[in-house]
Amino acid sequence: MKRKAITSPGSCSPQDVIVNIKHGSYPAVNPDGYDFPKHFVDPATRQRIHTLELLSDGKNRTYSIRNPRPGNWYALVYKKWEDPRTQKVEQQGLVADCHTILYTDLQVKREKDIRLVDCYAGLTLNYDEVPSDFKCMTVDSTEAVNFRLTIRNTSITNGEILISVQSLSLPTEESYLLSCAFDPRLSNEQTINFSPYPSAWHYLSVQRIVGNASRYADCESYRYRADIDEADNRTTVDLMRDDKGRFFTFDYGLPTTDLQDVTSLVNLTSGEAKSLRLNVNQFLDIGGNFAIEASLLMSLKYYMGYRRELRNGSLFAFTERNQFFKVVICLDIGHASVPLESGHCKFNDRVRPALFVLNSTDSETIYGKVIIPYPESGVWYITLRLFCDSAVCPCRTSENGSEYFVDPNALDRDGYMGDKNDTRQGETVCNATAVLSLSSTSCVNGRCSNHGSCGLNTFGGLVMSFCSCSAGYGSWDCSDDSRMDSRVYMLVSVLLLTLSNLLFFFSIYVAIIRLYYSEAMMYTFTMVFSTFYHACDAPAQVGYCVIRGNILQFGDFYCGLMSFWVTLLAMGVISERLRSSLQLTGAIVVALLTTWNMHSFVAFLLPVAVGLCVLLLSWWFDFRSTRRLRYPRPYYTTHLPIGVALVSVGLVCYAFLQTEQNYKIVHSVWHMIIAGSVVFLLPDVRRTAVNPFVPGPGYFKSPFWRVFDRSQARVSTD
């Protein structure tokens, strides 16, 4: 990786660059340090993101991923985030135009001699054939695979064998479905049992163990955890897809004739694990946000107030059906897990928290929602399982049996002295209905929390949705305002940037009394455009645009450059005819430069440099022909040095001192300094023997003011 200047002078310092690599989808990260919004899935529960931190110093870096999964891998490369409020506002042309270029080279090393076997027929090996790798294809089923391995021709000097199984790629020490050891000297035949990925390649690695084998699980005792129960019945249902005709916008639901209904009613029975299967396509579906919502379907009485409540710190049971139940929902890619009553999901010997645990205690726990940014491509499984209230009962009941308590001491605290044998037995068989909604949209529901605009980013044939946030807002959906300035601060900032232009009134006043009417008009336009541009460029909370912002921006930059141009021409000793011609020529050239690149230092330097040349040459030719200074002595000794000093200070502030944090103050000072410098730079040569800062005697009788004279001509009275 290199960082170098492109068509600009100067050098570039190395910069920190982050590379995120992920399988199946784009890496969902927040480079600017914002947290993910509410309901967004925890990134730690998804596919691993490989992160590289590089320095653009031209040195090579190598990163290896052992036994990668097959399919598409995606890399996201960006410069390490820095707080923009601390960064300098650099003018184009004054600093090097630095670009960071990343050169990549992908090398793949394939494992050889991977033999094909039958997952359901077993395998026989001689001990001297170990180590070996094998692969097999499973059928479209979630049923467990019983694989029998036989090791022959062993001797007393042989060591133990390590068996590892993984789907889609060769197993590693960190990634496997099953990994256990057995001693072929004690028994040369070993059966291993594992839950497979349906219709997928599985890789079996048989290795010799060097050293202590106690760090590996024993295949003889390698069983599913004894404290975890299995579902009696497991079914799989394919969901129906409904495309909406826009990028990343689709729904999934149970097969139905109602295409407008995006929800699915899933009927559940205790003892059954029901898996719903859907497909997320590569390229087409991975650039949006996939939302999963689930809820328990309760009766009308439940929502009318017949719900569990707390009394003396104890859960008070339903009075409608006297039944408590919960639904555990798991989400997996490539395989289906088994939901557990503890609120976890089990796949082989790996246990992790469930996606949702919905229970009928109150309205807050019957609903769950999660949003998955940039979902991985592949086959998704959503598995639901219902559990009855047998875990919390038998429970003590009230006299009439209409109410029961989970806490056996609750009745005593309520002062009830009934028979302690008044109990209700828990139910082991129950039925319930879950409401499920699966939908994908660009951004979050197609918008960005009303604080930004949703757009599509395309590069190299890849498309992803993103939010462009309004000033001050951030995060994935522009909902985070933690870095936003207060409304008072924003209002003060915009007032500084706008009201600082009022100092141009002094420039206009001085230009008028010194008879520079064209220049006064240009200063007026500069003040107007700058004021309304900064009012429009302010944050949306306090900003106001009279016309489109790009028009105001063009007017601000154009009139600012023209003010420099006409001021330099006014300072020169040239004829009015030549001055008018140069003003018109400058108006055309400055318009072209502003349209070309208004932010470029060249667009500013060119008219100013030409104007200075015209100014100095006119002074030199005039002095050579007359041998005296054209303007009064105080202009050269006092006014001109003050004006030049003010312009110099203003240019230093504008070019080198501005940062995002102090921009409001420094740029406002720039407005005031430039407006004030005109008062000293314009020479007062069209009048004689008057104070340069006040109108002269008879000023309002000048030809300019006759335009406003509305007096009638005297009529003769013959």
TrEMBL record:
The keyword Membrane applies. Residues 439-479 form the EGF-like domain. The chain crosses the membrane at residues 488-517, 551-574, 604-623, 635-657, 663-682. It holds the Pfam family DUF3522. Keywords: Cell membrane, Disulfide bond, EGF-like domain, Membrane, Transmembrane, Transmembrane helix. It comes from the Eukaryota. InterPro entries: EGF, NGX6/PGAP6/MYMK. Disulfide bonds join 469-478. It is found in: Cell membrane. It is a multi-pass membrane protein. The keyword tRNA processing does not apply. Its main location: membrane. PANTHER family: FIVE-SPAN TRANSMEMBRANE PROTEIN M83, TRANSMEMBRANE PROTEIN-LIKE PROTEIN. Belongs to the TMEM8 family. This is EGF-like domain-containing protein. It comes from Iphiclides podalirius (scarce swallowtail).
